[in-house]
Amino acid sequence: MNNRHLEYFVKVYETGSLQSAAEDIGVTQPTISAAIRKLEEDLQASLFDRMPRGVRPTIYGKSFYETARLVTNNLQSAKKKIRELQDPSQGDLTFGLSREVSRLLIGRIGGKLSVLYPGMTIRPIIGSYTFFVDQLLTGKLELALAQQPNDQEPSEINAELLYNDRLCPFVNPKNPLAKISSITPERFLESEIAEIETTEFANDEWNALLESKNLKPRRATLGGNDVGFIKNALVARPELAAFLPYNSVRDELAQGNIKEIKLKGYKAPRKVSLLSLKNRQLSPAASIFREGLLHWAKNCRRDQNQAWSDLANGL
Question: For the domain that residue 225 is a member of, what is the CATH number?
């Protein structure tokens, strides 16, 4: 019995056919048949019943499958890690990305890494801070980019600051409020206000301001619930106002498509951090991605406007 025999067995089990397994793997059917016979001799049990069309696993084959699949998966994972150590540019990375993080940042950093390491595959998954913490703690993710909540993160999580942000009120330039230098909450409520409705994105500062003045929020009903959707709606609809992360709308501000307004009594600073699990060694691909982000973050702390300008100009 060897690893290749186990691989052949798993493929036959999953396809239900010796011929299909041979075609998928790229060997001849006699090679597959010989490997299955050798396994059955070693185990002293019949793993498949031969049918007129294909094969059907026996009770022994069904029992053996889970173990064989686990062994082959672990072996493939081990081989992959060795290849990544030998050549980090061939690694794969899936990372967490929350709604409030600038897509410009990820697009530019990811694009630059794709040029430097064309064999590296980088995939984001969208989620919330709490979801990413769970994925990090269970080993399903190595890295995540998310806005840190005001309360303290779990002690097992390492949070490295990428950039400071702020949740700001914006309006369409055609909105009458765009012509006013400083606006009261009462006046701001004359517009329909679009907000992202998630726990991590909660605008506690705005809600507290409304409560202190005994005011009720006036929220717009939209068909989407993320930064990109609300940003596009704000550009298209002059009657709207919205709270959005400043760094996510830099392009729209520069093009004059939206305008930030000053809201009396309101400030909402935010921090966007790179999250990882403490005392866990990152894969080569994750390490390269982390280094690229932190290098940019260092420049951002030195001169934030220049760092964002560099991103807009393609680094």
Answer: 3.40.190.10
